[in-house]
Design a protein that fits this description.
CATH architecture of the largest domain: 3-Layer(aba) Sandwich
Oligomer: single chain
Distance between the termini: 26 Å
Shape: elongated
Strand order of the largest sheet: 3-2-1-4-5-10-11
Number of helices: 12
Order of helices and strands: EHEHEHHHEHEHEHEHEHEHEEEEHEE
Radius of gyration: 22 Å
Helix content: 25-40%
Structural class: alpha/beta
Length: about 400
């Protein structure tokens, strides 16, 4: 019998627990699996020996597993912890291995984004070099949708649905006044503009206006921005702008008001991009303008999750567990789109060394710079991913999510 360790890492999403539910479904149904454990606070928790039994907590408890399926954020909590190269310092790796041996772990499944896949790559190489027969498999997630080797990432479709919904509602709020009115919506996306691109879906039926969309893959020009805002005011009396937090000028400088602080992975911590544009509109146009930052709400909105996203996330979790049981290691569970109309996908596994530390940006040909928008190819790509509503159970008027102390 094989024992499994699972952990979650990075930023939360509306679907990361769904992938966990998929892993547990495959593990609990398999006659090859003994005990299933969870590392609390990702790889950092495993290093510290912070482990719980998921078998005791969740096996045979359908009501909890059903809730876990649609509960956003992370049941096992998270961390942002970067492993050093083992040749520089193997201390953390040795501690992870010590925890694995304590619980007789045969399989390690790590759910996360780009930096988490770097951890998967390093751990799989380390245990292999040490001659340990431990399978290490990555389970993708990130609202940024920037992992390579996969058509789109779990969590992205739900976040995109929330962004498009929110921007639609902001458009309805902005269009009602008898004077010029501008709303600037700042959306997550340091290096990739996929999530901001979802705002392109937001215009209500019958509305001739559409939001201006600015992505980090395209150089931001202040003069052209002001020109487009003025055009929108002249044509419609109002403008809604969707902007990625990571937009840059032609020289590669962030528009953000603050970009000097770095996180543990060396990424700039941006803040204030929307505020900069609000100030710019006030100074050069002088109309009513407000800034709206969707912030963490866009990644954890379980009430607005995409049914398509959750179904695929569950399947990817199941597949990751099954790949490991089949003997695969150093891979990430993936999906490929095989059709748009009807929307179809196929599932596979990809070498995590081809994924870690790489970023998938929005293709240049999917950006309509002239109109500060996106092309039909982008709209066709996005539309299937936001389809369907989840059957969230409500209690006392609020979503009845699964929360347990760990």
């Amino acid at each position: 019998m094989k024992n499994i360790m699972i952990a979650q890492s990075g930023g939360p999403t509306a679907a990361i627990n769904t992938s966990l539910a998929g892993i547990l479904d495959a593990a609990f149904e398999s006659d090859q699996v003994g005990e299933v454990y969870g590392g609390i606070h990702g790889i950092q928790g495993i290093i510290e020996g912070n482990v719980i039994s998921l078998t005791e907590r969740l096996k045979g408890k359908k009501d909890k597993l059903d809730k876990l399926y649609y509960t956003p954020d992370m049941y096992l909590r998270t961390c942002r912890y970067k492993l050093k190269k083992p040749e520089d310092d193997s201390t953390d790796y040795e501690k992870v291995l010590e925890t694995f041996k304590k619980y007789d772990i045969d399989i390690f499944l790590y759910i996360g984004g780009n930096d988490s896949m770097d951890t998967v790559a390093r751990m799989s190489e380390f245990v292999k070099a040490r001659g340990e027969d431990i399978k290490v498999v990555g389970v993708p997630k990130t609202v940024d949708n920037d992992l390579v080797e996969i058509d789109h990432t779990p969590g992205f479709g739900s976040a995109a649905k929330y962004v498009a919904t929110s921007v639609r509602e902001i458009m309805l709020d902005t269009c009602i006044y008898p004077y010029a009115n501008v709303a600037i919506v700042e959306i997550m996306g340091r290096d990739a503009g996929w999530l901001t691109a979802a705002a392109s879906l937001s215009a209500p039926e019958g509305c001739s206006a559409r939001p201006l969309v600015y992505l980090p893959e395209s150089a931001f020009d202040e003069d052209k921005f002001i020109e487009k805002v003025n055009e929108g005011i002249k044509s419609h009396g109002y403008v809604v702008v969707a902007v990625s937090e990571g937009i840059r000028d032609k020289d590669g400088n962030y528009i953000s008001a603050s970009e000097t602080k770095l996180d543990k992975f060396g990424h700039p911590q941006l803040s204030g991009t929307g505020s900069v544009l609000v100030s710019l509109v006030k100074e050069r146009i002088g109309c009513k303008v407000r800034g709206i930052e969707l912030a963490t709400a866009q990644r954890s909105a379980g009430h607005c999750a995409s049914a398509t996203d959750l179904a695929e996330s569950f399947k990817l979790g199941q597949n990751a567990c099954r790949y490991a049981l089949e003997g695969k290691t150093g891979v990430m569970a993936c999906l490929k789109r095989t059709g748009n109309n009807p929307y179809e996908t196929e599932f596979s596994a990809a070498d995590v060394l081809n994924i870690a530390n790489k970023v998938k940006g929005v293709p240049a040909e999917w950006i309509d710079e002239e109109n500060a928008f996106v092309t039909q190819e982008m709209i066709d790509y996005l539309t299937p991913l936001i389809q369907g509503e989840t059957e969230v159970t409500y209690k006392n008027g609020l979503p009845d999510y699964l929360f347990e102390e760990v």
